[in-house]
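Posting for a labmate who doesn't have an account.
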Amino acid sequence: MTYLAPVAPPVPVPSRTPAPAILAVAESLQPDLTQGFQIDALRLRLEMERAFGGSDADGAWDWKLAYEAGEVVLVLFLRKFGRALLARAGSPSALLPILAKVAGLLPTHTRRSEEMERFQQFSTPLPMGLAALAAAQISPHDLVLDPSAGTGLVAILAEIAGGSLALNELAETRADLLRHLFPGRPVTTFDAAQIDDHLDAGIRPSVVLMNPPFSAVANVDGRATEATARHLRSALVRLVPGGRLVAITGAGFTPDAPAWAETFGRLTETAHLVLTGAVSGAAFAKHGTSFETRILIFDKCRGGERGGITADLSQPMSSDVAQLLARIAVDVPPRLELEQIIGAGQARSSLLTGISSLAARKAISTSRPAPSAPPAHGRVRIEAEDLAYALRSTGEGEATARLSDAIYETFRMQAIDITGAAPHPTKLVQSAAMASVAPPKPTFSPKLHDAVLRDGLLSDTQLETVIYAGEARAHLGRPQPVLPNAPRPRKAKAPGGTPAAAARLFAASVPVAGTLADTYLRSRGLTQRDHMSALRFHPKCLHRDEGQTRNIPRPALIAAVTDGAGALQGAHRTWLAPDGQGKAQVETQRRAMGHLLGNAVRLTPHDDILVVGEGIETMLSLVEAEPGLPVWAALSSGHLGAVLLPERVQRLYIAIDRDPAGQRAAELLSARALDAGIAVRVLEPRLGDFNDDLRVNGKAALRQHLAGQIGPEDRHRLSG
């Protein structure tokens, strides 16, 4: 996100490079990651404040630096455990869930700086980096160049695979981080779009891994559609003949797009495009964008060879990185022999087992085979037959249930035998409790192509999972048994907390204007309430604190909680002092009723953007400063994380309170929004909440404060 410009002059960031402080934050958080502890935004904030000697509100640091510290934590983790994890997993696909889980322990990137947006500094998520690594087939003989190395997330993967590194990063702070993280490795700071022009002539990479800006050019304002092509062309020139380039680009950068046909024609004059595959925007959601991306794999031609496109361009977009990895394992050919780099007798190898075995089965030819003819239009009949398996007897199951004293037991199939099924390639375990109970005997038999069993495409345990999944699905939709002569339950009287009761309360209330509710809102600095039909006033709303035996009528501000269709689902009550100057002097000052989960107080109508936060007064404060903002109040941090977002919303702003609960709610809602393809920014107050900001600093100051956080595409809504 673009962080706010405070009203007071900010405390300047120290002149020293922030890299050592970022590294200190990462080192302090690394033990938490090692132990599998969640690192939320609050914990990250505290460590940043400790390392930088101040808060983000004071200007000592910003969230771009905080997120870079989180990425450095991952680099440190992989430096320590990466080789062992890679060797133990045995394949990129097996390593994927481990890395995804580790990366998931860090906060989602919900705040963006102008530098991030201008130069499109979105680091490669670990799962996507793993896909690039699998495609590269790195061996200990390789020199790997990362022209846009960022914080080193891709570089560390190449290092644990055995490759030597040459790193380049234009951003000064990131380059300094790389020097700390990869001592002894060359780190340059050139514009990667001209990497071949500036890089030392002695650096001749055999592999290039790159995630270039999609449409940003150094020192040039605005968007440049040719940015990706420039980066690829320069990197290909620098790559040694026979070397491999793996690039992550925007999904639209593809040879079958008319706008890029000529570009790919030039790129493939000197290289073979051997695979291209798009993946959904969910792959980058953790890093703050839902942009759909693509992986491209080029093998540079050697002397006398002609380039071209051998990749299958008809493949659909992968839904996730796991699906993309499956394509890479099957469709990516082995590497070419390098020209004048690897001497005779030096065998090519890879630490990624599965890829090396594929390479061993195929001879490395001196030229690429011609692309196969495209399949004829129309449906292709796939022969499938029932998977045959045998049920084990009870005695056999009991034999496998003998347990050791360990917490985990080796996984064994206890209920079925599948003749001819390949054993699972890696060791599987299950808890001792699960191992002691034999699973039920299934009856479902899936229909599978004979190659699944014949070629070992699925292991025995994977086939068992398919069987039980089909067994479970077969039971879905079956009618529940009806017990004869069962007494019918009496229809209960509607309790007081139902939507119907909320509707009655709201109907019995009156408009706010001229009431004690009007007085209360004015005391909070809130005057912009025209056309806000969601707010009303009830002069005698019943109230009872815990332990009281009777209800006491008190004046209250009433807010309607509605769903996406505009139907009233609940009501929120704020009991007021007799003079309206504040809330009532009672233990419970606020209470909601009805169905609240997923719903909200819709204070103003939304359009393509929406601003959502917790309290009614908080969100009214934003309207006070900027009447053009569409705002909803979720009423609590718990409900903020669960708000159901409208379909046509394209950009979401989350107005948080400065407390741990607000931070966690923002992370939950951000993750859901990014998964749905909605761009997210977080709005942060200077004080506890935005109503505090309004009352302490005034309307103009709050408007200025918000202007620094609203995206450039929405600044036309601002009045100042």
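Reply:
Got it, the structure tokens are right above this. The chain has four domains: 1-367, 392-470, 495-592, 597-720.
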